[in-house]
């Protein structure tokens, strides 16, 4: 929630007074002075203080899901099961951050922290996403070079350079920082390679647990929550 809204909930003064308290540098988050009225905070794991006194408030939810294939990345769908159906404990305002195609699998963050969700998807933030890819045709060094230079789709759309690590003749790791629709599949297709399996293993500071199985989920731990704090600030 926004820092000014948290102060309002704690009834520390009028809206005008709250704005002045923040601008005067009397509010801290984990010991750091905050002067932006729309700075996002989470009282669930951060310490927010006014003049050194802790403030209370509701925390957000953060879920790390290993999305299986056959499930759509949506809050609701009339035809298919959704990622929210897999997490019955999730609150009514929880939503998936970004998307994975129905036939793709891997790491998916779900939260009710709207500012965080938007910020992670801002192109300017260049949040890196890593995928393990299996393709039908053999991979050659030329594919690696094409990815490094930036793939160009048939319609003229140019992708940013993307590091590609070839693991075997038919598997690779690719890291992108964009979110074009079906981007990874289309990048390989532009090189004459059909993607058979696509699995996201990392997004920004978050990584898929090596022992995780499709359909499993858990809450983010303290280290992971702290790693997301830089993305709370959005466009401030």
UniProtKB/TrEMBL annotation:
One of its GO terms (biological process) is enzyme-directed rRNA pseudouridine synthesis. Its EC number is 5.4.99.-. GO terms for molecular function: RNA binding; rRNA pseudouridine synthase activity. It holds the Pfam family S4. It is an enzyme of class 5 (isomerase). The keyword RNA-binding applies. Residues 1-69 form the RNA-binding S4 domain. InterPro entries: PsdUridine_s_RsuA/RluB/E/F_cat, PsdUridine_synth_cat_dom_sf, PsdUridine_synth_RsuA/RluA, PsdUridine_synth_RsuA/RluB/E/F, PsdUridine_synth_RsuA/RluB_CS, RsuA_PseudoU_synthase, S4_RNA-bd, S4_RNA-bd_sf. Keywords: Isomerase, RNA-binding. SMART domains: S4. Belongs to the pseudouridine synthase RsuA family. This is Pseudouridine synthase.
